[in-house]
Specification:
Strand content: 15-25%
Radius of gyration: 43 Å
Length: about 850
């Protein structure tokens, strides 16, 4: 019994250790609102010793304006028994207020009396940030919708006053060399009139300036605006703000030197104890300041001053933009009449190079005023684009023989004051006096930026069209080559397989035949890769998890890397689902990672692999392959492979997806073209982001699947070997292919009839239709191809079975509107085993 009591006391001590250690306030309150238990964090938040808290009423720590709110939730808790979550203000001992989130739950004490467990967290900082964001949004909206700057800043000042809770708020903006009040709220009119001007004037009424030539600004406002502050002093911040919660104590305990001198102390004279002066920074200058005043001391905290500083800088940017817009509007109104009547910029330049006349439209054409050209006759040579400067100088320096009236023209680029590139079309005519002496030139300048951009866009479009035509031409050529190549490989592979069957394992010639057969298979793989690049290989696709496929391929990828290279994967399952085949995604991964490995010369380089979902708007518009691809969906699955290699130049990026292009060795380079072909066949696009010495990023985008993931395939038991017999009609226009096909079928036990094209096939089938079990026909033949012949043959025998073969891809062969379709398609070159399995599948009852 004693042991159990000791164990219970130990457990109780552990509970209270945990209770006191949790970083939230915990109170236990009875039904009448008295605190019966509290943890140390609650005592710390309320600034009251823990023992003192016990038996105190919780409402005494609730802000008087929120007591009704607490009482309502307290009653609901004890009546309904449901957990209550709410926010309100609490009071620390010392009368300071903080915002909390409370969660109250019902429980029972040791006497089975209902008690309330209250957990509360200080959310003052979070609420202030939320309020600041809301204020920012409101202020920006006011800046955008207000009709003029005066109205806009008036509304801003009112919003700042309401948000801060201060009695008075003012905004000073630069006007000439001074910073008068632009708008105030809550300040007495007499105070504003006396304090508005900050510039110091001497006894003779002249403006006083410092050693750098800037005007001397008085008062603490002047210190803040001029950057005269000491961040070591507690009343200055590192960003140059001044603040005090007790100006009387500040004046009593500091010297004029501490306060950077020239202070008028009128704020304190008006009874303002809490004062904050926040500079509005933009770039490297101060646009003005925001002033917060209150008669009550202790209004500010360091966190609140930081809020003020962020607001001030945001407002500085918005006000500066609005001022610029207003100035631009005034300027446009001033020069509108001239601009509408004079489109081009007209000049008259004298023989000594100075301007006699420059039309006002020069501002619109070049961005520079006529006065700028009068002041600097060589301004045009200074603002011309660096690449066109030599050409312009040569044009302007051409001699002018007497009596020659030629009108010489030139197109060149200039840089406007804001760095914008503009195209100008210039023509000039020499001017001669009555004695035939050259006295200057009349010049005309028209801005042709839009027409030049249109021309560049036209050339870019023409380049894209050439690329598309190039791709189309490659497709035709590659398909034709693959067709003829595959036909010949069919003969080679067929005879090699027959030779293998006739050689025993012990014969030395068998090794040579096996090697030749391997080489033929590799040649067939090259053909398949070429067709894949051309998008002519159709695979069976089904919904698959892209991230899962990549995870399964990671061991293979790591084994392919050069020693020392690191592969990092960011793959989260479940990932995006796309319609694809595992084989195609593995091919993309192997080819792209192999390319990245070759590009990463550093033995300690890194290749990263990531799968995400991207919005269509996030897909880069530059370096897309295919170049004419446009998004059709709102989002796409993205397979990203990034390397830390040597990177690619602009010209290399344009060529890396061309067949057999490589920056390494001639004759390699089908890896990335195959990637492009596979992604294109999915309806997607590949983008490249690279620069030399910084590495490359290849992103393959795939349309997302609208279907669910396919179930795991069911394993089908193999069927027993069947005896093959009957007659087969073989149709092919290539005699040697016809011969090897007939031989293969004969070796399988079939009798063979042959035809050289579709018309001959119809004739032979008509004569032997009762004997013929099925037809094996080539697709591309003269007079009548295989599919056309099938339409005729099915009219003779509707149940006719056919296998269609071709050196072209199935996608290209079947790309037609034919009612009758073959039972199976075999891609040349095919093996004897593939032929046998296809026949068995077709003849299954």
């Amino acid at each position: 019994m004693l042991r159990q009591q000791k164990q219970l006391l130990t457990e109780r001590d552990r509970y209270f250790d945990f209770y006191n250690a949790v970083p939230v306030g915990c109170l236990t309150v009875n039904e009448i609102g008295m605190i019966v238990e509290a943890n140390l964090h609650a005592a710390c938040l309320l600034n009251v010793p823990r023992d003192t808290l016990i038996n105190l009423s919780i409402p005494r720590f609730i802000h008087e304006e929120d007591n009704d709110t607490y009482s309502q939730y307290h009653r609901q808790l004890f009546v309904l028994g449901k957990t209550q979550v709410f926010e309100l203000r609490m009071m620390k001992a010392g009368a300071s207020t903080f915002m909390v989130q409370m969660q109250a739950t019902i429980s029972y004490d040791a006497q089975s009396e209902k008690v309330c467990h209250v957990i509360f967290t200080d959310i003052t900082g979070r609420k202030k940030v939320t309020e600041e964001r809301e204020l920012m949004a409101r202020l920006i909206t006011q800046m955008n919708v207000s009709s003029d700057l005066r109205t806009c800043i008036s509304e801003l000042t009112e919003s700042l006053k309401n948000w801060s809770g201060c009695e008075a708020v003012g905004i000073r903006l630069r006007d000439g060399e001074d910073y008068p009040y632009y708008e105030t709220r809550g300040f007495p009119l007499s105070f504003v009139e006396k304090e508005s001007a900050l510039c110091a004037y001497g006894p003779d009424g002249t403006l006083q300036r410092d050693l750098t030539g800037n005007p001397v600004l008085e008062c603490m406002c002047g210190n803040v605006l001029s950057g005269r502050f000491d961040p070591a002093q507690p009343f200055f911040t590192a960003r140059g703000s001044f603040w005090s919660n007790n100006t009387s104590a500040l004046l009593e305990n500091t010297t004029e030197s501490d306060r950077q001198a020239r202070t008028r102390n009128r704020c304190n004279g008006e009874g303002y104890e809490s004062v904050a002066l926040i500079p509005m920074h933009i770039a490297n200058r101060v646009l003005g300041l925001i002033q917060f005043n209150d008669h009550c001391p202790g209004r500010f905290t360091p966190e609140l001053i930081q809020h003020f500083e962020r607001i001030a800088d945001t407002l500085a940017l918005a006000i500066s933009r609005r001022q610029a817009e207003d100035e631009l509007r005034k300027s446009e109104e001033k020069y509108r009449t001239i601009a509408e009547n004079t489109y081009g910029m007209e000049t008259w330049q004298l023989a000594d190079g100075t301007y006699k006349y420059v039309s006002p439209s020069c501002k619109r054409i070049t961005g520079y005023t006529a006065d700028a050209f009068y002041h600097d006759p060589e301004l045009l040579e200074h603002i011309v684009h660096p690449e066109d400067r030599a050409m312009l100088i040569e044009h302007l320096s051409i001699s002018h023989p007497p009596g020659v009236q030629e009108n010489r023209g030139l197109d060149f680029r200039i840089l406007s004051p804001d760095g914008e590139v503009r195209w100008l079309s210039h023509s000039c005519t020499p001017v001669y006096d009555t004695h035939g002496q050259w006295v200057g030139c009349r010049g005309s300048f028209r801005e042709i930026t839009r027409s030049k951009q249109s021309e560049e866009n036209r050339l870019l479009q023409a380049k894209k069209e050439r690329q598309i035509n190039k791709t189309t031409s490659l497709q035709r050529m590659g398909g034709a080559i693959a067709h003829h190549f595959n036909n010949k490989l069919q003969v080679v592979i067929g005879y090699l397989e027959l030779a293998m069957e006739q050689l025993s394992i012990s014969e030395t010639a068998r090794y040579s035949v096996v090697s030749a057969l391997d080489a033929a298979d590799q040649a067939a793989q090259v053909s398949r890769m070429m067709l894949t690049y051309l998008g002519q290989v159709k695979s069976k696709r089904e919904p698959c998890d892209l991230a899962v496929i990549c995870q399964e391929c990671l061991p293979t990828l790591k084994n392919r890397l050069r020693r020392g290279l690191k592969l990092e994967a960011d793959l989260h399952a479940p990932g995006p689902v796309i319609n694809t085949s595992t084989k195609e995604i593995r091919q993309i991964l192997l080819n792209t990672v192999s390319n990245a490995s070759d590009a990463t010369t550093d033995d300690h380089g890194c290749i990263s692999l990531r799968v995400t979902v991207s919005l269509a708007t996030e897909i880069a518009s530059q370096h897309r392959f295919p170049q004419d691809w446009q998004p059709k969906d709102s989002s796409y699955a993205c397979l990203e492979i990034r390397d830390s290699g040597c990177g690619l130049s602009e010209s290399e990026i344009e060529e890396i997806f061309d067949p057999f292009y490589s920056t390494k060795l001639i004759g390699r380079g089908l890896g990335l073209p195959v990637v492009k072909g596979i992604v294109k066949a999915h309806g997607g696009v590949v983008t490249v982001e690279s620069s030399q010495s910084t590495g490359s990023t290849f992103r393959s985008y795939f349309p997302l699947s609208q279907k669910r993931l396919s179930p795991l395939p069911v394993v089908v038991k193999s069927t027993p070997e069947k005896r093959r017999e009957g007659t087969v009609l073989v149709v092919d226009d290539d005699k040697i292919v016809l011969e090897i096909t007939s031989t293969l079928l004969s070796s399988l036990g079939y009798s063979v009839l042959t035809a050289m094209d579709g018309i001959e096939a119809i004739k032979i089938f008509t004569q032997h239709k009762k004997e013929i079990q099925f037809v094996l026909s080539d697709f591309a033949m003269p007079r009548m191809n295989g599919l056309e012949a099938l339409q005729k043959l099915r009219k003779i025998s509707p149940d006719l079975k056919m296998i269609l073969v071709s050196g072209y891809s199935e996608q290209e062969v079947m790309n037609g509107n034919f009612r009758e379709q073959p039972h199976f398609f075999l891609k040349k070159p095919y093996s004897k085993q593939a032929l046998k399995e296809t026949i068995d599948l077709m003849l299954v009852p």
